[in-house]
Every structure is written in C-alpha cells, then in structure tokens.
Amino acid sequence: MLPQQGVVLSSSADGTDTLRNDDIESEQAYLTALYSRLDELREQAAERLRAILLEAGGTPQGRSQREATRSHWAEQVAQMNAVENGLCFGRLDFSAGNPRYIGRLGMFAEDRERDPLLIDWRAPAARPFYLATAVSPEGVTRRRHLRTRGRELTGIDDEVLDLDAGAGGREDVTGEAALLSALTAGRTGRMRDIVETIQAEQDEVIRSGLPGVLVVQGGPGTGKTAVALHRAAYLLYTYRAQLTKQGVLILGPNATFLRYISQVLPSLAETGVFLATLGDMFPGVTARASESPETAALKGRLDMLGVLERAVADRQTVPDDFVEVDHDGYPLRIERAVCEDARAAARRSGRPHNVARQMFVTEAVHALSLQIAERIGADPLGGDNLLEEADLAETRRELREDEDVQRALFELWPVLTPRQVLRDLLSDPDRLESAAPELSADERALLLRDRASRWTPADVPLLDELAELLGVDDTLKARAAARERRQAVEYAEGVLEIVEGSRSLDFEDESEEKDEILSALDVVSASAFVERHEVIDTRTAAERAAVDRTWVFGHVIVDEAQELSPMAWRLLMRRCPSRSMTVVGDVAQTSELSGTTTWDHVFEPYVEQRWRLTELTVNYRTPAEVMAVAADVLAAVDPSAPPPRSVRESGYLPWASRVSRDRLAAELIDAVRREAAAVPDGRVGVLVPAALEESLGDALTAAIPGAAVGEQPDLRDPVVLMTVRQAKGLEFDSVLVVQPGEIVAESPRGLSDLYVAVTRATRRLGVLHTADLPKVLAALA
Ligand SMILES: Nc1ncnc2c1ncn2[C@@H]1O[C@H](COP(=O)(O)OP(=O)(O)OP(=O)(O)O)[C@@H](O)[C@H]1O
C-alpha cells in the first residue's frame, strides 16, 4: 500500500478544458507584443554597447566609467538573451484591477505611465502567483500558466481561485497541471529552473530575508537544490547593489554536480555567482584527488587545528648549540640562547608565522650587533663600549643585508607557504609524529602519503587554516608591489624612448618643425604613463573571489551541507563573517564520515542558537511507489525522521531481481537496455558499490557505447554508471541499484548511501543483487 495518497497529483488536473481559441489568440497576441518589446529593448542596449565600444582615450576616470557602462550594457544584452525561452509564463487575474503577467524579467511599456507589461517573478507583485490558493486567494480570481515553445503559445492551464465559482483544485499545490507536466518530463542531464511552478513552502524559503543563517532541511527530492538556486537569484535581484559588489558563493558537493546545476542561474539571467566545490576554495589549487573516507574524516576533525599549529611551530627552530656565519670576514655565532629569546619574543607577539618572522629577525640581529659591538667597540681600558647608537644601527643594517646572515636566519625561521607546510607534514612520518602526538599511530598512518600526491578536497580546509596561521608579511608584499611598479615604470620609459626615437626619425628632414612639436616625454612622465595604463579591474565579484583567498562574500549558499566537516565549516565561516548564509541539506543522507547528523552541532560554535530552520516536506522527484521502498530505508537510518510525501505516482512498481554472480554484468546490460527503451526521452542511472565501479563500468561501456562512466561522467549521456557518492543530488528517469548489500557494507554510513541511491529516480527503480537483499529492502523481495 502506498502512503501519502492524499497528496498525489492526478494527471487529469484542471486546465484540460481551458484551451479555448479566443483565449489562445489573445494570449498569443500579448506574448508577441512582449517579444517585440524585448527585441526593442535588446536592440537599444546593443546599440549603446556598440557606441561605448567605439569610444577610446580619455582620462583614467573617464575610462573606468566607460568600462562600468560597457559592462552594464553587455550584461543587459546577455540578460535579455537569457530570457528568450519562457519569457512570460503566467498571468494573474484579480477581482479588481488589471491582470498581471509574470515572467523571467520585468518590462514596462514605453508610454508615459510606464505601465508594467511583464512582472519579474522575484518582484513582490508576482508573489500571489506562487502563494494564492482558493482558501486564501489574496484577491486573485484566476491563475493562468502559459506554456510556450520558443515564441509560440502551446497551451494554457487555468486555476480558478474563487470557491464560490467552484474552484476544484488542491490546496497543497499551486499550478497542479503545470507542475505535473514539469515533474514528468524526461530528464536531460542538466537541472532546469522551476520558476514557473515554485510551491508555497519553497517560495517562503526563496524570499526569506538576507541576514542570518537559514537552514533548509528536507528529504530527497524536496527541491532543496532548486530552492537554493532560486534563492540566489532572488537575493541578487532584491539586494542587487550590495550583493553584486560582494558576490554570492554557492558551494556544491562535486564538479559533476556543479555542471548539473550550471544552467539554472543563467536561465534566470543571473551570472554573478561563484559556483564552487570545497576543492576550489583555495586559490591556485584545484583539489580533486580522492582518498579513503577515513582519511578525509580525520582531516575534517577539529583536532587538526592543534596539529597544524604544532606543524608551524616545529618550523621555528633553534640550533643545538650555535650556527656560525661569516660576516665581513669574521666568524659570527648565532647562539642557541639568542635564537630561543628571539623565537620567544616573536611567538609572544601572537602574530602569524610569516609576520612574526620580522620580530624574530629584529631580535636576532639586535643580539648579533651587540656581539659585534663587543668585539670591535670594547674599550681596551675597560670603560663603556665605544660604539655609539648610530654605529650600532649601521651594524644592524649591515647584518640585515648580509646574505649569509639572512640565509642562516631563514633556516631558523623560514618564510613558509601553506602548501609547503602541508606537503612536508603529510609526507614525513617524523614531522607527523612531532605535530600530532595525540593521534594514534594508525591515525597518523592514515594521514601519511607520498610527497607527490595530488590535493584532495579535505586538504583544502587545512591549507586555508595554514594560510591563517602563516599570514602574509605585508612588507614582503609591499616590496613585491613596489618592484612590479618599478618594472612598469621602466617599461614605460622604454616605450616613451621608442616614441621619442621614432619621432626624431620621422622629423629628421624637417628640422624647422621639430621644435614646434611636443614630444611624448614633454607631456607625460613615465610614472604618469603607467598610471594611465594601469589595468582597470573589470572583473565581477565572483571572478575576483575565485583568486582571492580572503574574499568575503555577501551571501553564502551551501548545498548538500550535511557532508561538510567541522574544518570545512571553519573555512566557510571565514568567507562569510556577516553569517548571511543559506544552508540546505538532509541529515539522513549524510555519507561523509566527518559530515553532520545534526545541524545544532554545526552552528552552535558560530551563531549559538541564532539560526532559523525551515523544513521542506513534499518530494517532487520520487514517485510514491519508489518512496514507499525508500521509507523503509529511512526508518533504519533515522526512525524519527518522517519520509517526505511524494507529490505523484508514476504507475510503475519498483522491482528487484536476484541473479548469479557470474551473470551480474550480463544481466545488468540487459536491464540497462530495457530501461533505456522504457525512458527513451530520459536518462538511466546505474548506481554501484565503489568496489564494482570499474569492472561493471568496463562491461557496460563495451556493450553500450554511449554509456558514461568515470570520475566525471557526462550526465547528458543516456546511460550513466556511478557510485552513490557521485550520485549525490542528481536524478535519473530510471535508476538501477546494483548490489545494495555491498553498498550498505562499504561504509559505516552505508544505509544513508542506500537511501540516497533509492531516491534518485523520477520514474522507475530496479534492483539487481546476487546475495540476499538487505532487510530494509524486504518490500522488494
Ligand atoms: N516546484 C517545483 N516545480 C517543478 N519541479 C520541481 C519543483 N520543486 C522541485 N522540483 C524538481 O524536483 C527534483 C528534485 O529537486 P532537487 O534536486 O532540488 O531536490 P533536493 O531536495 O535537492 O534533493 P536531494 O536531497 O536528493 O539532493 C528536481 O528535478 C527539481 O527540478
């Protein structure tokens, strides 16, 4: 028996009788007028853009203004191109007043009144489109969904919201027919926007205010990802000035997932968002390598803080006895005691390692200068030292500039980079033992790896933490900037000389004119020339954030947030000191060992109880037949968690088939062929235990050439084989789960993995197994 019968959508939803010719004609005429207006506005914007591109020269300020105007018009043109499909998708009729048309963009008539022709879905005036119901109609008498293909109207679905007029729709969904058609459409391997059918509980989340931490907990298929993306678009629209400057970060679980969602925001005409995985959050590093879940979990623990602190402290060394350097022809000893004092003073400063280094050097040089003073300034008569303060200062300067001294001090307290420290630490058992005495030998063995290993996502929070511990010595940075500028000026001098040189050639036969003509150097100095040609930063906030580790975002959105480790949360919180965040996830789907199973634990250290929780309860993806199977798995993961209610039935019953081990690959290939034929317009997902990924992947690609496998399979291929971890957040029309028992056995969070696996299907679910089914799938036996 299926649960949740009460909410199941029927395919005979209202709207089928509304295709009246006169309505179609008048709505088509309105649509055509909207598109003409769009064309007009786009042409105007393109014209302005062309004009700006033709302008040249001017003062730096003028150029920078021009650049801002150029990017404004370029963005306008891009936005208008992006909304070409589905420009207008809805209409609201009210008991009084004019109807409102709702679409992907706001447009006004050109007349003096500037009447709204089309209302942006994010504007407050569009809200009743998502919220009005027959019981609470907010003055709306009819909600109309307009279905289009290109610029052509292909259908109309009406909902009459007047109880007296016999409204028969359901109260728990809005736009029933349009919703059903969106949910049953074949999947393409790219997520689509849901702007036409956002449901009331989702709308609440999308339009929630900007400040504070908002946690959206919801079962599989409740639209968390969709809501997170639409919220980004809503926030950028509502708080545009603030957020375009600071940028919005959306963090997703892996690169395949980012590609899956990559089309949604552009289709909503929003591009100013930095989409990243944890592995992208340290500029200069793209961390994609994999490692054992246990190693990743260990790296995610807060214990790593102490380990990293000690790893840095271990790099601040003192000699056993002394270091001898040659200074000015004389041997000079840097004694252990001197180093210890200098190190203690530098550590006491509480500054990060690279910044505190200045203090270490100053203290050491001071001690060495006294040593020299003793040698050369000692009064043979036993009186005070004969050197004056000015002499000592000069000695200190000489010591600082002495390359031998510099080298010796560098050895004792080197300038370090995060990558260097982490690489050294993880590839050296002695360093590990010294930095991590509280970890067991087995744990340290988990961390140990080859020096040449590639970075993993779990390394990134460690690199970021090290960047904080090491800091950047601003004096070094300033010196580098000064050097760059000096080089630019030298280059400019070169340019001006060439101009001068060619001028003398040009005019060598016209000596009387020569004095009349100003040379380049007469009107501009080399440094002014540099200023004029300094590159104006035209990058968006998202682009700048991608290369700046210390970038602070205006808002951070985290998807599949249950998977983040405590160390990863520290990194994210540093990127968002305002704590303006939207965190979406499902603690029943956690598969990372260092992920969370309660939100309280995550936020308590940062905002205590000051975070808001919203729950999404309706499952738009998984049909009721499949959800009935998943509910048993969920009950084993967390008996207290209610399964999300499916919004529809698919009419297909999930199945399981037991096969012999030696026939597994062959049976799988047959099943894939059958399923691919059953969803010809959609996608088949094959979810396997990690241990079988390679062998079954090989067998499948040999038999079915279009099948995608590997680390980053192309989801647009008709058949995709992957592990459950890779399938996080994704969906397929038909899903085949292979060897569920092995999926459960592979990880301590195996039951959660199985729950994820069985909730990926939008239509059909099948299970292939060689041993007994896990108890939680008994319903399929
Ligand atoms: N209001 C809606 N209208 C149309 N489709 C919707 C709506 N809400 C969700 N969907 C669709 O339901 C599917 C599941 O949504 P989504 O992937 O956002 O769920 P999720 O909660 O993130 O799931 P998971 O926890 O499994 O990752 C998607 O295909 C999405 O487009």
From TrEMBL:
One of its GO terms (cellular component) is cytosol. The keyword Lipoprotein does not apply. GO terms for molecular function: 3'-5' DNA helicase activity; ATP binding; DNA binding; hydrolase activity. ATP binds at G218, G219, P220, G221, T222, G223, K224, T225. Keywords: ATP-binding, Helicase, Hydrolase, Nucleotide-binding. InterPro entries: DNA_helicase_UvrD/REP, P-loop_NTPase, UvrD-like_ATP-bd, UvrD-like_helicase_C. This is Helicase. It comes from Couchioplanes caeruleus subsp. caeruleus. The lineage of its organism: Bacteria, Bacillati, Actinomycetota, Actinomycetes, Micromonosporales.
